[in-house]
Amino acid sequence: MSSGLFYAILGCALFALGLAATLLLREALRRVLAFNVMGSGGFLVFVGLAQRDGVVDPVPQAMVLTGIVVAVAATALALALLRRLEQTDAHEP
Amino acid sequence: MNADLVFDLVLGAGLLWSAAGALLGRDRYGAVILFIVFGLLMTLAWVRLAAPDIALAEAAIGAGLTGALLLDALGGDSAGTAQRGASRWLLLPLAGAIAILLAGALRGLPAPSGELREAVSAALAHSGVSHPVTAVLLNFRGYDTLLEVSVLLAALLGVLGAARDARPARLSAAPLLQAATRVLVPFMLLTAGYLLWAGAHRPGGAFQAAAVLAAGAVLLALVGMLGGWTRPALRTRLAIAAGPAVFLLVAAPSFERTLLLQLPPQHAGRLILLIEAALTLSLGFILAGLFLALLRGDTAGDGQA
Amino acid sequence: MLDVASATLMLLGAGFFLAGTVGLLRFPDIYSRLHALTKADNLGVGCIAVALALQADGLAAGLKLLLVWPLVLLASATVSYAIAERARALGVPLDGGAPDDAP
User: Fold this and answer.
1) CATH number for the A3-91 domain, one of 3.30.70.60, 1.10.287.3510, 3.30.420.40, 3.40.50.11310?
2) Residue B264 has pLDDT above 60, yes or no
3) FRET partner for B148 with CA separation of 20 to 30 A, picked from B126, C34, C41, C77?
């Protein structure tokens, strides 16, 4: 098994773990963590599959680089919205 | 079993263990720390996949910045609420079933065709840079990068709008700290500049340089030398807008030819450097802003790190 | 020979990082966590920097790698001082103490 295929399968496992956790966990913070784990799993599948014959492929690498930065922006926005939610709940009668 | 496979197996086990610990552990603080560990192990996985650009970005942005955001979001409450019984026991079997389905689908795929790889190698000489990932990011798929910067800008606007605590983000204004910062920040600027320039012919580039720049901006803000994140000043706004603006300006001439962002080969190297410099500035401020605008200035909890 | 030294140093560095992370997870309050984090992680970075510098291609690359260590030391000292000072100003207690017991 090439290392690319190994990491693609590992990525599947991480994606599945993250998906199940996003669906089933209750705390909002854990769901944000789970979403990030899902994202990382997806990135591993992306690059791992493209490189499963062992040759480096720059196109999925560039896309994953973009994906990581967008994921952090989404996480920041999610945390900001969560905080507004907490504050709104706190002010509720 | 050769040494590579052993390393991969151990790394894979570490990744799964830290992810499970982050998601299923009882204590929220421990969960965030394990998530940071997960991010750093992912960095090693990227190195194994021969993707040093991704490894740099994952370490700085994925593990570092995201970890800092999450630690700040913990606030004062670090005890977790335990999962209810039924759904907790459902999680691992469900995850296992999905994983088996996905992995099974992978086995049936034909061998990769390598077309894109060859197309990139063939066109690399005309792209203006010699590092393929940078060429793809800034030239062949420049449109994606332009949209990505716009998405980040939108996220920053959302964060500035949603997090309306007007307290300035400052840890401590001790003179010793400011002196040490005055030594550190020039090194950070130098490193960012080097990463930016090096991106043309070796792993590096705008995103990695922006991460270092963001760290410098966060450090300055935390010791009280750079303020005003909830109401950004004009200079900050200009800096943030510079990246997308320059990118659009470079893209504009190609509108008339109806092929977006086609860089003329004789100028491509210089144009890419220009775009990357503006992007580094913008992304650095955006990433720093995402963190600083969220920082709770008034945490009176048990002071998580 | 060089490889053996590098490998030993890397393992040592990894061990320091592991110890630092365990401390980060298990220590009860922010001051002891910062203590574990900065001490152990800085040693870990130092060991790994030297291990990699031994494997570097030339003098310039090796020196660049070694430069990482003092920079990390300075950065982590600065930031941990800022964090600890802020925690003290907020009145964060030492482990188990009431909020007035802040040092």
Assistant:
1) 1.10.287.3510
2) yes
3) B126
